[in-house]
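User: Design a sequence. Structure:
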């Protein structure tokens, strides 16, 4: 019985732990890759991630690909006169020595043309394409529809 409770606790904690994985390409560290569950496949999904440029050269995220969506794109939330829009972003600057977060209300990946709805606990790959560092594929964890991001405060402990 005790092992059943432990297994259940580990299973419930797993999605948050996976979202805290770090991936590297060149001088870039990519972590906290996550998405929100979707209500259906007809609506687009989002992709969020944190990119740290530990190098001395600026870089830029110039694209994303994923088998989960037929039309993944980079977008930026822009508010003008109190009205929000999400225009396509040709690239997202990743300055040397800085951290850039794709997050709610800012830059993000828009995943249009989903094959199926994203369910909490799912995982899917996204390949990030950088101008200088090249490509890296990260595992994206699907969190609840109401999530504000992964809780990585106790990851690796």
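Assistant: Done.
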């Amino acid at each position: 019985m005790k092992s059943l409770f432990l297994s259940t606790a580990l299973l419930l904690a797993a999605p948050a732990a996976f979202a805290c994985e770090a991936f590297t390409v060149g001088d870039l560290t990519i972590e906290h890759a996550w998405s929100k569950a979707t209500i259906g496949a007809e609506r687009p999904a989002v992709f969020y991630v944190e990119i740290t440029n530990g190098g001395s050269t600026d870089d830029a995220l110039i694209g994303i690909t994923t088998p989960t969506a037929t039309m993944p794109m980079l977008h930026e939330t822009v508010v003008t006169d109190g009205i929000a829009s999400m225009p396509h972003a040709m690239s997202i600057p990743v300055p040397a020595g800085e951290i850039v977060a794709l997050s709610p209300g800012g830059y993000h990946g828009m995943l249009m043309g989903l094959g199926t709805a994203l369910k909490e606990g799912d995982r899917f790959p996204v390949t990030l394409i950088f101008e200088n560092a090249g490509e890296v594929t990260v595992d994206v964890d699907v969190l609840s529809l109401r999530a504000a991001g992964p809780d990585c405060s106790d990851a690796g402990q």
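The longest strand covers residues 134-143. The first helix runs from residue 2 to 19.
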